[in-house]
Amino acid sequence: MWVFHTPDFDKSGFERFPWVKWQELPIINFANRYLPKTDVQGMMMRIQAFDWFHANGFQRVFYVDADTLMLKDFRDIYKTNLTPGAPLAACEDYVFTDDPLLGRLYEKVSYEFVRRMVINRKYFNSGVLYVDLPLLYAKLKPINEVSLVEYFIQNARRYMFPDQDMLNELYPMYVRLPRMFNSYSDIVVARYMTATEAMSARYKISNSIIVHFLAKSKPWKLSPDLDMMKAQAPIELYWEAMQPVIDLLDKNFVEAVHENIRRYRHVIDHYRLTEDFLDE
Fold first, then answer.
1. What is the pTM of this model?
2. Could you list the pLDDT tens digit for every one of the 280 residues in the chain?
3. Alpha-carbon dihedral angle through residues 90, 153, 48, 248, given to the nearest 10 degrees
4. At 23, which helix (H) or strand (E)?
5. Which residues have CB under 8 Å from 188's CB, separation 6+?
């Protein structure tokens, strides 16, 4: 397993995990008008990592964002058949794309839905990707590019979500993975959800293979008690997963996650009662 990090990351204590290999990547100072500079820099590390893997002769890569949590065995993803026409596998974006009711609601309320449809009618989320690198980079040859980072820098001004928009534009054809490989809270229609819908979403997310804590659902980002996006996220599972390495984590980070557990205790307790009922 490879972990990519910025020069300022402190690896002290993580030596206890000998199966982890560390690779430092430079910070690319780039920002756009939509997102904070630090967010863009973090997103850029994904395509920097692909460039590094490709330059070092790797053939296939299973990539996951840092804000994910693996709950179950994910190895079935390695059976995915990637082809020159579809060199990567991903999950179509938006957790409720397959839900008829909330899917229609998206179309009514979301400019973002329309914007992404223009880029790729099957726009995918880049937080979890299974990639055939030789096939992926073969797509760059006809446009005289050898690096995803170089292509991005030349075209970045037109992208809102930098690397994700670019990958969708370059690779509109992909293998669609089951939702359970990249399951996350709804963003846009969260404010229209009833408590029942939020609990239903939480049940699906909590029983997935990989949970993706994107945007405001991150367990370490403090938010109000009634944030329906955060209510969908199983932050208590993240807290439980932290325990074996909690001594290595930043104190403020740990306290923020714990505070969110406290703020959402009523949601967590109600959900666990509901989950017990649904599992019977």
1. 0.89
2. 999 998 888 888 888 899 999 999 988 877 666 666 667 777 888 999 999 999 999 999 999 999 999 999 999 999 999 999 999 999 998 644 555 555 556 555 566 666 777 788 889 999 999 999 999 999 888 776 779 998 888 887 778 788 899 999 999 999 999 999 999 987 777 777 777 888 888 888 999 999 999 888 999 998 876 788 888 899 999 999 999 999 999 999 999 999 999 999 988 888 777 665 545 5
3. -100
4. strand 21-24
5. 94, 106, 109, 110, 112, 113
